[in-house]
Specification:
The complex is a heterodimer. By secondary structure, chain A is an alpha+beta fold. Chain A folds into two domains: about 1-80; about 80-230, Heat Shock Protein 90 (2-Layer Sandwich). Chain A contains eight helices and nine strands. In chain A, the strands form three sheets. A five-stranded mixed beta sheet of chain A has the order 2-4-5-9-8. In chain A, helix 2 runs antiparallel to helix 5 (about 125-140) and helix 5 (about 125-140) packs antiparallel against helix 8 (about 190-200). Chain A starts with 9 loop residues before the first helix and ends with a strand. Chain B starts with 9 loop residues before the first strand and ends with a helix. Chain B has 26 helices and five strands. Among the domains of chain B are: about 5-135, Rossmann fold (3-Layer(aba) Sandwich), CATH 3.40.50; about 440-535, Serine Threonine Protein Phosphatase 5, Tetratricopeptide repeat. Chain B has helices spanning about 20-30, 40-50, 70-80, 95-100, 120-145, 145-160, 165-180, 180-195, 200-210, 215-230, 235-245, 250-260, 265-280, 285-295, 305-320, 330-345, 350-365, 370-380, 390-400, 405-415, 420-430, 440-455, 460-475, 480-495, 500-515, 525-535; strands at about 10-15, 35-40, 55-60, 85-90, 110-115. The chains are: A alpha+beta, B mainly alpha. The interface of A and B includes residues 32, 37 and 120 of A.
């Protein structure tokens, strides 16, 4: 409850206005996509502008979705709906969702996932984590993005890697699983990673719990994001 | 993977924005679909589906003012304008979650989130079409109600270890349950649970335990399922059944209420809540649920005239019993009745009930002129006693007008007129001192027998519970009332300082006094029991 006896629950107001904003940005994105497909860019400058417009709108959209999800998580209003899903479906969906960004950026996408690989998780939540990381990688990569999924030690591992400059040192140095809430609430950043970490941790099986891992290097030499789910 | 033949598909695209329809249309033609039909709103969608069958319906959730894509889906399925062979894909700018949850009861085949891309659309259609073709023989068997054939097919599919095996297992479980193959169902669910605690298997196993009569075990599992997955609506239904089988109507209502809280937009759940609340004599909840039912009914194919009539009935009861059902429930009820006339084509019987309920509310508002006028209008529409609902509405109006003798007389006539109609007699029973229907006579006899047994074993509290149950069903039944008095006397004999029992005893006696006079066959018994009071108090 608020400290100054205000009758308004500010976080509620914020949440509902975030909800509205998210819907507006969704509409904006939809119109933007039809503009781009109706009048395709005629030169490079235009193409770059479209990409920027589209990228920034997608980013706002996914940040707003994250905000809402975190808000619900905090009040325990976020039910996790675990069921069996095929990884290829979930990952292809997110790649297709960002198809235009990848195409306008002339990026290469390496996709590596066994058609038969299936696992147990909440596909909405994991889908939005993958979407966020993907949007981020598209922003920072130079030429290529690699999306893959496999089983490692009885854990599902989803990897999104790029050939960009990689994650900054301070982000890599922190111990696993520790984007603290103070940092996020300072407005500093890393909302996407905080979100990914929380969502991962909502997935539990026996004594194990999901987590994320950041690294630089890998086959492409850029940032490597890994999500592990029990 | 076999490529679906897009050229042969018939697809309906619905959205209130023409730009979106055109975009999707050009995406589809790019994929080779030749046959695309467009609709700009809910009505156009329904008209198109009345005319022809579609393979795929791509509908936006938001279709402008009025009904949503979800409403259309419900109506299409309800009116059997589409079957399993038509894929319904709901498109929305929302992240799917909110909508998914509010619509669990009538889920589309899939959701897509805006903005759509050709690639997304193609991937999703390929996946769904393939699944449909794999499952088609199963759906055909189920449609013919050939459960044996369906289960054979599903066994093969679930053993195939491919992407259809899990959904085949889910379906197989419910087919086994429908066939009464409890052992097979139990094995299937238990095996699935060995892998993961999946909610569908947990629910399935609880259902099996429930039909086998392990009510408490099943109940505790079900409580756990809804605690862990509060949005999993089917679990509430089974849990409500569970409480019902255990005779706990309070918890039935509580469970239905929880499901309504999760899914407030579901009109069928609001209706269910209204029914159980009415059975529990909780008019406040019933009125609220009916108020919402009427509101939701404006958009839904499940809205009926009866919802309006029921709201007016409950409102009138509330006024009669001095309950606060809303700041101005009388005028609200009149407005709801007026809406019924505007929204629906009323039959004579329905129109007559609207008049009579109007009259009853006027009578309760001390406007007898308007009430009598309304009664006359109703009688003009339904001069002969044909319809028990109309007749009982008329009796209620007489009672509201304090025409008690006339009402009694009419009730006696009705008991004779409908002597061969058991379901009519059941409705009549609520107004009578003694049940007139065979079924209710049997119910009273059974409950009484049980209560008297308990009484004879000096288990007075248990006996009272039993008689109370009967009193709820037949509030005017003198025999039951006197049994309650007698059980209270028994209780007071053991402990005559029990203030609560003494108070209840006096209240029960007063109630009986208002129901009978010296000509009543049970009057002597009443007198005897009344005199015990003096003996005890002395």
């Amino acid at each position: 409850m608020s400290k100054n006896d205000s009758p308004i629950d500010f976080s509620m107001v914020l949440a509902s206005s975030v909800h509205d904003m998210k819907n507006s940005v969704g509409m904006l994105l939809a119109s933007l996509e039809s503009v781009i497909s109706d009048t395709p860019p005629t030169n490079d400058v235009q193409a770059r502008r479209f990409t920027t417009l589209h990228y920034e709108a997608s980013r706002i959209n996914s940040e707003l979705i994250q905000l809402l999800t975190i808000y619900r998580m905090q009040d325990n209003h976020l039910p996790v709906h675990i069921d069996e899903h095929y990884l290829v479906d979930v990952l292809e969906d997110q790649v297709a969702r960002n198809h235009m960004l990848i195409e306008t950026g002339a990026l290469q996408l390496q996709f590596n996932c066994d058609d038969e690989l299936r696992w147990y998780f909440d596909s909405d939540l994991i889908g939005s984590v993958v979407h966020n990381i993907l949007v981020n990688s598209i922003r920072y990569t130079k030429t290529t993005i690699a999306v893959s999924a496999e089983l490692v030690d009885d854990l599902l591992c989803i990897t999104i890697a790029d050939d960009g400059p990689g994650y900054p040192d301070d982000m890599l140095r922190r111990p696993a699983g520790l984007i603290d809430e103070g940092e996020v609430s300072k407005g500093e950043t890393h909302l996407g990673l905080y979100f990914a970490e929380r969502i991962a941790a909502l997935h539990k099986q026996h004594n194990r719990e999901g987590y994320i891992q950041l690294a630089n290097g890998g086959d492409l030499g850029g940032g490597v994001f890994k999500l592990f789910l029990p | 993977m076999a490529e679906p033949n897009y050229a042969k598909l018939r697809i309906l695209v619905a959205d209130d924005f023409s730009s979106f329809r055109n975009t999707v249309n050009s995406m589809l033609s790019g994929l080779g679909v030749a046959n695309v039909v467009m609709a700009a709103n809910a009505n156009e969608m329904l008209v198109q589906c009345e005319r022809a069958r579609f393979d795929i319906i791509l509908s936006d959730y938001n279709l402008g003012a009025g009904r949503t894509g979800q409403h259309v889906l419900e109506e299409l399925r309800f009116r059997k304008l589409i079957d399993q062979a038509t894929l319904f894909i709901l498109v929305s700018a929302e992240s799917s979650r909110n909508i998914v949850m509010s619509t669990y009861d009538c889920a589309p085949d899939d959701y897509l989130m805006k903005p759509l891309t050709t690639k997304m659309l193609q991937q999703r259609m390929d996946r769904l079409l393939l699944q449909r073709s794999v499952m088609a023989p199963v759906y055909r068997a189920l449609q013919k109600n050939d459960l044996g054939a369906a289960s054979e097919l599903l066994i093969d599919l679930s053993l195939a270890e491919n992407r259809y095996s899990t959904s085949a297992q889910k379906m197989l479980g419910s087919v086994f349950v429908s066939m009464g193959e409890w052992d097979k169902a139990e094995r299937l669910y238990t095996r699935a649970l060995e892998v993961r605690p999946l909610e569908w298997a947990q629910l399935g196993l609880a259902k099996v335990k429930q039909v086998r009569g392990e009510l408490e075990l099943a109940g505790s599992w079900l409580e756990k399922i809804v605690d862990e997955n509060p949005l999993y609506l089917p679990a509430y239904d089974v849990l409500a059944d569970n409480w019902g089988m255990r005779g706990d109507s309070h918890n039935v209502q509580f469970t239905v209420q929880r499901a309504v809280d999760v899914s407030p937009m579901s009109i069928l759940r609001q209706k269910q809540l209204a029914i159980v609340a009415q059975e529990n004599a909780d008019l406040v909840t019933a009125a609220d649920a009916l108020r919402k039912t009427v509101k939701l009914g404006q958009m839904s194919c499940h809205g009926t005239v009866n919802d309006h009539l029921n709201f007016a009935r409950v409102s009138a009861l509330g006024v009669e019993r001095d309950l606060n059902l809303g700041s101005n429930v009388s005028s609200e009820a009149l407005a709801v009745l007026k809406q019924a006339e505007e929204r629906y084509e009323l039959s004579d019987a329905e129109q007559a009930q609207v008049h009579l309920l109007n009259g009853r509310i006027h009578a309760l508002n001390n406007q007898p002129d308007l009430a009598i006028k309304a009664m006359a209008e109703a009688e003009r529409l339904q001069p002969a006693a044909e319809n028990i609902d109309v007749e009982l509405e008329c009796v209620s109006l007489m009672l509201a007008l304090k025409q008690t003798d006339k009402a009694e007389e009419r009730l006696q006539e009705l008991a004779k007129l409908f002597a061969d109609d058991q379901s009519a007699l059941e409705k009549l029973d609520k107004f009578l001192n003694e049940p007139a229907s065979d079924s209710n006579r049997a119910v009273v006899a059974e409950i009484n027998r049980e209560g008297i047994d308990l009484y004879n074993q000096s288990q007075f509290d248990a006996a009272l519970d039993c008689f109370e149950k009967a009193r709820k069903l037949f509030p005017k039944h003198v025999g039951i009332q006197l049994n309650i008095v007698q059980a209270l006397v028994g209780k007071l004999k053991i402990d005559d300082t029990d203030e609560l029992a003494l108070h209840e005893y006096q209240a029960a006696l007063e109630l009986v006094a208002s129901l009978i006079d010296s000509s009543h066959p049970q009057f002597d018994r009443y007198n005897r029991l009344r005199n015990r009071v003096g003996a005890l108090n002395a």
